[in-house]
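Input record (one chain):
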Amino acid sequence: MRRTRTATVTGAMLTVLALALAGCGGSNSAATTSPKPASTGSGQTTASSPAATTQASGTTTTSASSTTTAQTTTTTSNSGGVPVSGSACTAADLTPGFLNSNGATGHIVIAFVLKNTGSSSCRTYGYPGVAFLSQAGALLTTNATRTSDDFAGHLPESAITLAPGQEASFRMVTSDVGSSQSDCANAHGLQVIAPDDTATMKISLPEPISFCDGKATVSPLVAGTGASST
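The corresponding structure, as predicted from the sequence alone:
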């Protein structure tokens, strides 16, 4: 009988010990899984960082775009579509004058200048508006065809900057041979309007010039006296 009780007690003690060990194992399993929520939180922080970076980049792009627009707005263009800087030459800056004239084979080539008599530089480009004047100063019918290639040769269109005292020139070509004598008139002067301006200027001719059928050609402005007829 004593041997039996000893075995029973020993069995009970083993059972209690097994349960105790099982309880310790469960505690270790919970400790192993606890870091997972912390890892998830770190991932959320990383995901939000690129969003902040993208927003900052977008702000920079908008600012750069605004700067480009401002620069484009300050760029000016003349009537010929050539981008230039500075203010346009107007009648307030210019003094017109007769340069010279020459006749050959029924054609008369007449050259004029526009001198910058202002106090600052100005720019110009293209063709002046022109009309011949009678002895009384009245406008004569003048159908002036704009061309860079006339009877006297080629004059290229070019952007010109005139410093104070500098000149630009242009020329006209007329014909003293008309359909009939009654279709010809004597011009005693010229009315001129500078490109990019509306104010009129007047030039007196040293002697009357005959032009017929109301026709003429006018060249673009060129720097200096390059439009001279001689």
